[in-house]
Design a protein that fits this description.
By secondary structure, the chain is of the alpha+beta class. The protein is 54% helix and 9% strand.
Amino acid sequence: MNFPMSRPFRLSLLLPLLLCLSACSTLHAETHPGEATLIREVATATGKSPAQLEALLGGAQKQQSIIDAMNRPAESMAWSDYRKIFMTPTRIDDGIAFYREHQALLDRVSAEYGVPASYLVAILGVETNYGRVTGGYKVLDALVTLAFYYPPRADFFRKELKTLLELPSDKLAGPLDSLQGSYAGAQGWGQFMPSSIKAYAVDADHDGRIDLMDSLPDILASVANYFHAHGWVKGGPVVVRAQVDDKAHAVKVDHSKPLYPVEQFEAWGYAPLAKVSPGESSTLLSLDGSDGSLDWLTFQNFYVITRYNRSPMYAMVVHQLADAIAAGVKNDRMARAAR
């Protein structure tokens, strides 16, 4: 005999099925831990399709080599070794050649943003060897790996991944799943993170989109705009060597932001070895050289370079490469004028 099932009995049979469907749905969405929540946030903020976002993130792969690279950054080495990577005759000569080839564009961008052309060239030289080495990782792989599988900096990289997913297509060099970059997810000749693309990248060639891979006007103007927005002082000093007295007052310095006027450091036993205004705000930097410690007074423009990369060694090598490139360009001009 068939008896009709009561409503509570029907629900008791359906409940396991509903729980299973819910669990299966969650498992499907969570290709990476925390992915579903991020998709909801991006979809809510932008109106983008959750299914398309899920497909993008689901196609990204965790890369152990990215985590390994994060654990051994070049900035962890000694200054004397770090400097050798970038201050080579080849990289200097290539920078001079790049400046010469693109001088009209560089001069125009420099005049607009107040940043010397040699520093724009040096950034490209240090970051990607003038566009030759822009990174071999898929940007999505890099940011997914670091956002979901690298706890030491997961919060930072989750924000960068979220920003990347929220960027409109006209701010990117190509489709999201085609973008290539560094192990940290930086893109283009100037190695911009997604938040930097959002805030500082410029459509300088006025073609309706920002391309930091193939448009030199966009690339150079974006780097210049980054410096300008972070407070570059046109014509201001960057760094000067300092002579330290044997009885110099000890000064604790834990960042590159200018702290005191030069005259105060002089009174404490740190004398600049080049002419600089006594009232110029500055701070101290000591790096290990092959023959002992090397000491400098650094200024606002040095601090600006550390906004691009927080390592003072990075900022110093950008400055020294820029100086070498500027000197080479000047010598070229003098040689041509003498002919």
